[in-house]
Amino acid sequence: MKTAAIVRILGFSIFGYFFLNWIGSEGETSVFVEQTWVWAFLGALMLFYIAFEVCLHAFEKIMYRTLSEERQAKYDADMALAKINQFKWFKDTYKKLLGSKPIEQEGEIVLDHNYDGIRELDNKLPPWWVYGFYATIIFAVVYMARYHIFDGINQDEEYQIAVAEAKIEIEEYKKTAKDLVDFNTVELLTEAGDLDAGKTIFAGNCVACHKASGGGGIGPNLTDDHWILGGGIKNVFKTISEGGRAGKGMVAWKSDLKPFEMAQVASYILSLHGTNPADAKEPEGEIWRDPLAPVEEVDVEVIDSTKVQVIIEDQPVTGDVVNDSIN
Ligand code: HEC
C-alpha cells in the first residue's frame, strides 16, 4: 500500500483516540482506562477505515487498467512529477529560513583574507534567528508596558486568583463527590434537607438503643453535654463510622451507611443538643469542649492590687496575683 494511505490510517487512529477521549472522559481519568470496551470500538472503527482504504486502492487500480496506453503513460508522468514536488513547499521554506547561499554562489560572499588557506564566508544571519530576535524585542516592549507601566497583575495576584478559582472548583467537586467525607474532613451540616435525611436515618437505625428523642436507652444520651467518645461533628462521625468501645453494642455503621449519610445523621444528632428530653438517661462520659472553638471572652476584673477576678464563660474565678499570674 502507498505511504500516503498508511499515514492517513495512522492519523485517523490518533485523531479517533483523542476524539473519543475528549467526548468520553470525565475529569482527569481517560475513558480508555474507565471503559476498556472503547478500545474495541476504536479497533472496529479502524478496521472499517482500513477496508475503505483498500477498496479505494483497488478502485484506483481498476480505473488505471481502463485507460488507454497513452493516457496511462501520461498518468504515470503526472504522478512522478507530483512525487518530486511533494514536499517542495517545506523544502523551499526551510532553505529560505536558513538564508545560506548555495555552494555555487559562495564566491560572492567570500572575504578577502586568507590564513594558510582558511578563508571566511560573510554569510548573512539566518532569517529565523533575526526574526526571532525582533520578536523578543517586541515581546520586551509589550511586557514592559503591560507589567511596569500599566500595572498588569503580578505573580502574587495571579496566585491569589488561582487559589480563589481552585477553592470554587473544590466546592463544586465536593458537591458532586459528597461521599468523600471522612472524619477528618466532615463538617457540620445545617441545611434542613440534610437534617431531615439524618432524622430519617436515625429513626430507621438508631432509635432502638438511643430512643427517638436521642435521650438514650441501651446507648447513651446524645442530647447532653457529656460524651463518652468525644463530641463535635468529627468525633460523632467517627463513632458512627467505626463504632464504640468493643462489647458495648454500638457497631460500626460504615458498611451500612454511606459516608454522607453518616454526616447527615451525625449532624442531626448534634442538632438535638440541649433538647433535654423528658426520659433522658443520666449523663455518661466527659463534658465535651471543642478544642478548635474560639476562646470565649475572658473578663478580668481587678479587685485590689493582690486579687483579681477572671470571668470565663460566665463563671467567675477569683485568685491571688502572684508574679503577675493568677493562682
Ligand atoms: C444496639 C444498640 C445501638 C444502636 C442500634 C446504635 N447505637 Fe449508638 N451507641 C450504643 C452504645 C451502647 C453506645 C456507647 C458506646 C460506648 O460506650 O463505647 C453508643 C454510642 C453512640 C455514640 C457516642 C456517644 C458518646 O457519648 O460518645 C453515638 C454518636 C452514637 N452511638 C450514634 C448512633 C447512631 C447514629 C446510630 C444509628 C446509625 C446508633 N448509634 C445506633 C448503642 C447503639
Offer a few descriptive terms.
binds heme C; single chain; 11 helices; 327 residues; 4 domains; 52% helix; elongated; alpha+beta; Cytochrome Bc1 Complex, Chain D, domain 2
SSE topology:
Elements: H1 3-24, H2 31-34, H3 37-66, H4 69-84, H5 88-98, E1 110-115, E2 118-121, H6 127-149, H7 155-176, H8 192-205, H9 207-210, E3 226-227, H10 232-242, H11 259-271, E4 286-287, E5 298-304, E6 307-312, E7 315-322, E8 325-326
Antiparallel strand pairs: 1-2, 3-4, 5-6, 6-7, 7-8
Helix pairs in contact: 1-3, 8-11, 10-11
The structure holds heme C (HEC).
Strand order across the largest sheet: 5-6-7-8
Mean pLDDT across residues: 87
Percent helix range? 40-55%
**What is the number of helices?**
11
CATH topology of the largest domain: Cytochrome Bc1 Complex, Chain D, domain 2
Q: How widely separated are the two ends?
A: 96 Å
Q: What amount of the residues lies in strands?
A: 5-15%
Number of domains: 4
- In the CATH hierarchy, what is the class of the largest domain? Mainly Alpha
Poorly predicted regions are: none
Query: Structural class of the secondary elements?
Result: alpha+beta
Shape: elongated
Task: Tell me how many strands there are.
Answer: 8
CATH homologous superfamily title of the largest domain = Cytochrome c-like domain
Query: What is the correct CATH architecture of the largest domain?
Result: Orthogonal Bundle
* Secondary-structure element pattern, one letter each: HHHHHEEHHHHEHHEEEEE
